[in-house]
Amino acid sequence: xxxxxxxxxxxxxxxxxxxxxxxxxxxxxxxxxxxxxxxxxxxxxxxxxxxxxxxxxxxxxxxxxxxxxxxxxxxxxxxxxxxxxxxxxxxxxxxxxxxxxxxxxxxxxxxxxxxxxxxxxxxxxxxxxxxxxxxxxxxxxxxxxxxxxxxx
Length: 152
Hints:
alpha+beta
């Protein structure tokens, strides 16, 4: 019994010491930035860094927030020269379409199965499976269109 307790304590101590050594991996996100001054686009590049007085943009896609090794190729813009910034994540439209298709299709299938079978006395009758299939397709198409529009 003492060996079992000792093994449990050692396991907890080892797992805690290992947890202290792991580093958090950041997701690399790429932003497309449109910088406006007086309702005119002054720059349309990729946002790399933001500090206390300037933003740094690059012509090549680079992840936001990571130190750039090509600092000479960055275009720095002072905050005083900026009226508005529009940011777009790279691939946002595709993620919007995918999310819309999944959510719309799932809601359509749930609605189809939830409505049950039609009565036999009706002229047009569908089973719950047929309703789920057709509403899943329709919901997926509608959700994909809405997700694509909202992802822009």
